Amino acid sequence: MFRYLLFDLDGTILDTNEIIFRSFEYTLKVHLDYDIQRQEILKIFGEPLFKQMTYFNPKLAKAMCQTYREYYAKHSKELTRVFPGVKKVLAHLKLHNIPMGIVTNKSRKFAEMALHDFQLHPFFDFLIGGDEVKNAKPDPEAIIKGMKLLKANPKETLMIGDSPLDLDAAKRAGIKSALVGWNIFPKERFIGNPPDFYLVQMTDLLQILNLDAA
Protein backbone atom coordinates (compact mmCIF):
# COMPACT_ATOMS: atom_id res chain seq x y z
CA MET A 1 0.00 0.00 0.00
CA PHE A 2 1.39 3.38 -1.00
CA ARG A 3 1.12 6.17 1.54
CA TYR A 4 3.34 8.80 -0.10
CA LEU A 5 3.22 10.23 -3.61
CA LEU A 6 5.84 12.08 -5.65
CA PHE A 7 4.78 13.72 -8.90
CA ASP A 8 6.66 15.08 -11.86
CA LEU A 9 5.16 18.35 -13.14
CA ASP A 10 5.53 18.94 -16.90
CA GLY A 11 3.78 16.29 -18.96
CA THR A 12 2.32 14.66 -15.85
CA ILE A 13 0.16 17.29 -14.15
CA LEU A 14 0.52 20.15 -16.60
CA ASP A 15 0.38 19.97 -20.39
CA THR A 16 3.34 22.22 -21.17
CA ASN A 17 4.26 20.56 -24.45
CA GLU A 18 3.26 23.46 -26.68
CA ILE A 19 4.97 26.19 -24.65
CA ILE A 20 8.15 24.10 -24.46
CA PHE A 21 8.16 23.46 -28.20
CA ARG A 22 7.55 27.11 -29.04
CA SER A 23 10.14 28.35 -26.56
CA PHE A 24 12.77 26.12 -28.15
CA GLU A 25 11.73 27.12 -31.66
CA TYR A 26 11.93 30.82 -30.83
CA THR A 27 15.24 30.55 -28.98
CA LEU A 28 17.05 28.53 -31.62
CA LYS A 29 15.78 30.79 -34.39
CA VAL A 30 16.97 33.92 -32.57
CA HIS A 31 20.42 32.65 -31.63
CA LEU A 32 21.28 30.13 -34.33
CA ASP A 33 18.84 30.93 -37.15
CA TYR A 34 17.89 27.27 -36.89
CA ASP A 35 14.40 25.96 -37.69
CA ILE A 36 14.37 22.99 -35.37
CA GLN A 37 11.97 20.09 -35.83
CA ARG A 38 9.83 19.08 -32.86
CA GLN A 39 11.00 15.47 -32.99
CA GLU A 40 14.51 16.75 -32.34
CA ILE A 41 13.31 18.72 -29.32
CA LEU A 42 11.47 15.66 -28.02
CA LYS A 43 14.75 13.75 -27.77
CA ILE A 44 15.85 16.04 -24.92
CA PHE A 45 12.46 16.63 -23.28
CA GLY A 46 12.60 16.68 -19.50
CA GLU A 47 16.30 17.37 -19.08
CA PRO A 48 17.53 20.52 -17.26
CA LEU A 49 17.38 23.58 -19.50
CA PHE A 50 21.08 24.48 -19.48
CA LYS A 51 22.02 20.92 -20.39
CA GLN A 52 19.53 21.04 -23.25
CA MET A 53 21.00 24.25 -24.63
CA THR A 54 24.56 22.94 -24.50
CA TYR A 55 23.54 20.29 -27.03
CA PHE A 56 23.01 23.06 -29.58
CA ASN A 57 25.79 25.51 -28.70
CA PRO A 58 27.78 25.30 -25.45
CA LYS A 59 29.20 28.81 -25.86
CA LEU A 60 25.76 30.39 -26.23
CA ALA A 61 23.94 28.14 -23.76
CA LYS A 62 23.65 30.76 -21.01
CA ALA A 63 22.26 33.42 -23.34
CA MET A 64 19.93 30.89 -24.94
CA CYS A 65 18.57 29.92 -21.53
CA GLN A 66 17.78 33.56 -20.83
CA THR A 67 15.94 33.97 -24.14
CA TYR A 68 14.05 30.74 -23.57
CA ARG A 69 12.96 31.79 -20.07
CA GLU A 70 11.83 35.22 -21.22
CA TYR A 71 9.67 33.73 -23.97
CA TYR A 72 8.38 31.00 -21.65
CA ALA A 73 7.41 33.46 -18.91
CA LYS A 74 5.57 35.68 -21.38
CA HIS A 75 3.50 32.93 -23.02
CA SER A 76 3.32 30.05 -20.53
CA LYS A 77 -0.10 30.71 -19.03
CA GLU A 78 -1.86 30.95 -22.39
CA LEU A 79 -0.14 27.82 -23.74
CA THR A 80 -0.36 25.60 -20.64
CA ARG A 81 -3.29 23.63 -19.24
CA VAL A 82 -3.93 21.12 -16.49
CA PHE A 83 -4.45 17.64 -17.90
CA PRO A 84 -8.10 16.48 -17.73
CA GLY A 85 -9.13 14.94 -14.42
CA VAL A 86 -5.87 15.74 -12.66
CA LYS A 87 -7.09 18.52 -10.39
CA LYS A 88 -10.10 16.52 -9.24
CA VAL A 89 -7.93 13.55 -8.31
CA LEU A 90 -5.41 15.75 -6.48
CA ALA A 91 -8.24 17.27 -4.46
CA HIS A 92 -9.51 13.78 -3.62
CA LEU A 93 -6.05 12.66 -2.50
CA LYS A 94 -5.70 15.78 -0.36
CA LEU A 95 -9.07 15.04 1.22
CA HIS A 96 -7.68 11.63 2.22
CA ASN A 97 -4.58 13.28 3.72
CA ILE A 98 -2.14 11.63 1.30
CA PRO A 99 1.25 13.40 1.58
CA MET A 100 2.32 14.61 -1.87
CA GLY A 101 5.28 16.44 -3.33
CA ILE A 102 6.52 17.70 -6.69
CA VAL A 103 9.91 16.51 -7.96
CA THR A 104 10.74 18.24 -11.23
CA ASN A 105 13.73 19.11 -13.40
CA LYS A 106 12.08 22.48 -14.02
CA SER A 107 13.60 25.40 -12.10
CA ARG A 108 11.87 26.21 -8.83
CA LYS A 109 10.89 29.69 -10.04
CA PHE A 110 9.01 28.46 -13.08
CA ALA A 111 7.54 25.44 -11.31
CA GLU A 112 6.15 27.66 -8.55
CA MET A 113 4.78 30.07 -11.14
CA ALA A 114 2.94 27.25 -12.88
CA LEU A 115 1.51 25.81 -9.66
CA HIS A 116 0.16 29.22 -8.64
CA ASP A 117 -1.14 30.07 -12.12
CA PHE A 118 -3.37 27.00 -12.02
CA GLN A 119 -4.13 26.98 -8.26
CA LEU A 120 -2.37 23.66 -7.71
CA HIS A 121 0.01 24.65 -4.90
CA PRO A 122 -2.40 23.86 -2.00
CA PHE A 123 -2.35 20.17 -2.93
CA PHE A 124 1.37 19.67 -2.37
CA ASP A 125 3.51 19.55 0.76
CA PHE A 126 6.67 20.62 -1.04
CA LEU A 127 8.33 21.31 -4.37
CA ILE A 128 11.86 20.32 -5.35
CA GLY A 129 13.10 22.09 -8.47
CA GLY A 130 15.85 20.91 -10.74
CA ASP A 131 18.03 23.82 -9.64
CA GLU A 132 17.77 22.74 -5.98
CA VAL A 133 19.74 19.52 -6.39
CA LYS A 134 23.24 18.83 -7.66
CA ASN A 135 22.03 16.08 -9.96
CA ALA A 136 18.67 16.24 -11.71
CA LYS A 137 16.61 13.24 -12.79
CA PRO A 138 17.38 10.52 -13.84
CA ASP A 139 19.64 10.80 -10.80
CA PRO A 140 17.59 9.80 -7.72
CA GLU A 141 18.80 12.73 -5.60
CA ALA A 142 15.55 14.73 -5.77
CA ILE A 143 13.39 11.68 -5.04
CA ILE A 144 15.54 10.73 -2.06
CA LYS A 145 15.35 14.33 -0.82
CA GLY A 146 11.58 14.26 -1.24
CA MET A 147 11.23 11.05 0.74
CA LYS A 148 13.26 12.58 3.56
CA LEU A 149 10.93 15.58 3.63
CA LEU A 150 7.94 13.26 3.84
CA LYS A 151 9.72 10.87 6.24
CA ALA A 152 8.61 8.21 3.80
CA ASN A 153 9.47 4.54 3.55
CA PRO A 154 10.60 3.69 -0.02
CA LYS A 155 8.27 0.68 -0.07
CA GLU A 156 5.34 3.01 0.59
CA THR A 157 6.32 5.68 -1.95
CA LEU A 158 5.16 5.94 -5.56
CA MET A 159 6.62 8.20 -8.26
CA ILE A 160 4.17 9.37 -10.93
CA GLY A 161 5.72 10.72 -14.12
CA ASP A 162 5.63 10.90 -17.88
CA SER A 163 9.21 10.33 -19.02
CA PRO A 164 12.00 7.75 -19.01
CA LEU A 165 13.87 10.11 -16.67
CA ASP A 166 11.14 9.71 -14.04
CA LEU A 167 11.15 5.92 -14.30
CA ASP A 168 14.94 5.73 -14.16
CA ALA A 169 15.09 8.01 -11.12
CA ALA A 170 12.42 6.02 -9.30
CA LYS A 171 14.16 2.73 -9.98
CA ARG A 172 17.50 4.10 -8.78
CA ALA A 173 15.82 5.44 -5.63
CA GLY A 174 14.35 2.01 -4.90
CA ILE A 175 10.69 2.97 -5.29
CA LYS A 176 7.85 1.99 -7.62
CA SER A 177 6.78 4.14 -10.57
CA ALA A 178 3.57 4.91 -12.45
CA LEU A 179 3.68 6.16 -16.03
CA VAL A 180 0.91 8.45 -17.25
CA GLY A 181 -0.72 7.36 -20.49
CA TRP A 182 -0.90 10.92 -21.83
CA ASN A 183 2.89 11.19 -22.12
CA ILE A 184 4.32 12.45 -25.41
CA PHE A 185 7.19 9.97 -25.72
CA PRO A 186 7.32 7.11 -28.26
CA LYS A 187 6.85 3.67 -26.71
CA GLU A 188 10.35 2.53 -27.64
CA ARG A 189 11.80 5.05 -25.17
CA PHE A 190 10.49 2.85 -22.34
CA ILE A 191 11.87 -0.46 -23.61
CA GLY A 192 14.12 -1.94 -20.96
CA ASN A 193 12.66 0.12 -18.14
CA PRO A 194 8.88 -0.32 -18.02
CA PRO A 195 6.85 1.30 -15.23
CA ASP A 196 5.39 -0.69 -12.37
CA PHE A 197 1.97 0.83 -13.09
CA TYR A 198 0.37 2.50 -16.09
CA LEU A 199 -2.29 5.20 -15.76
CA VAL A 200 -4.70 5.45 -18.67
CA GLN A 201 -6.34 8.30 -16.78
CA MET A 202 -5.49 9.94 -13.48
CA THR A 203 -8.38 8.23 -11.68
CA ASP A 204 -6.47 4.96 -12.15
CA LEU A 205 -4.17 6.21 -9.40
CA LEU A 206 -7.04 5.96 -6.93
CA GLN A 207 -7.44 2.26 -7.74
CA ILE A 208 -3.75 1.67 -7.08
CA LEU A 209 -4.19 3.35 -3.69
CA ASN A 210 -7.42 1.44 -2.97
CA LEU A 211 -9.38 4.67 -2.69
CA ASP A 212 -12.93 5.29 -3.83
CA ALA A 213 -13.31 7.15 -7.12
CA ALA A 214 -13.22 10.93 -6.97
Description:
By secondary structure, the protein is of the alpha/beta class. It has 2 domains: 4-15 and 81-208, HAD superfamily/HAD-like (Rossmann fold, 3-Layer(aba) Sandwich), CATH 3.40.50.1000; 17-79. It contains 9 helices and 8 strands. The chain has helices spanning 17-32, 38-42, 49-56, 61-79, 86-95, 108-117, 141-150, 164-173, 204-208; strands at residues 4-7, 14-15, 81-82, 100-103, 126-128, 157-161, 176-180, 197-199. It is globular and about 50 Å long.
Topology (SSEs and partners):
Elements: E1 4-7, E2 14-15, H1 17-32, H2 38-42, H3 49-56, H4 61-79, E3 81-82, H5 86-95, E4 100-103, H6 108-117, E5 126-128, H7 141-150, E6 157-161, H8 164-173, E7 176-180, E8 197-199, H9 204-208
Parallel strand pairs: 1-4, 1-6, 4-5, 6-7, 7-8
Antiparallel strand pairs: 2-3
Provide a brief overview of the structure.
With 214 residues, this protein is an alpha/beta fold. It is 43% helix and 13% strand. It folds into 2 domains: 4-15 and 81-208, HAD superfamily/HAD-like (Rossmann fold, 3-Layer(aba) Sandwich), CATH 3.40.50; 17-79.
What distinguishing features does this structure have?
214 residues; alpha/beta; Rossmann fold; 2 domains; 6-stranded parallel sheet; two-stranded antiparallel ribbon; 9 helices; 8 strands; 43% helix; globular
